[in-house]
Amino acid sequence: MIVSCGPTAQPPAEATQAPVEAPTQASEPAAAPSGEAILFGMVAPMTGDAADYGVQLETGVQLAIDEINAAGGIDGRPVELEI
Asked: Fewer beta carbons within 10 angstroms: which end of the chain, N or C?
């Protein structure tokens, strides 16, 4: 048997106005990054017993960098990964 103490649940109040949808705007694609690249360094096990973890880390970081570059980079500069 499970017993708990607390106030009884109140039924939700009826809405007085219908929700209004915010106007959607088509976002413009980000400009391709240009200029000197920002280098990110990463240390990860790429050989030995823990190599699987290193490969997964590299894949995750590279995915994040790809998304950053697709959004225009950092201050308009591309990002690169160095391992």
From this structure: N
Residue 75: closest CA among 37, 41, 22: 37
Closest CA to 38 of 71, 82, 2, 83: 82
The DSSP line for 1-66 is ------PPPPPPPPPSS---PPPP-PPPPPPPP-SSPEEEE-----SSTTHHHHHHHHHHHHHHHH
d(CA 72, CA 41): 20
Whether pTM > 0.85 for this model: the answer is: no
Q: What is residue 2's predicted lDDT score, i.e. its pLDDT?
A: 60
* Beta strand pairing call for 38-41 and 79-82: parallel
83 three-state secondary structure: coil
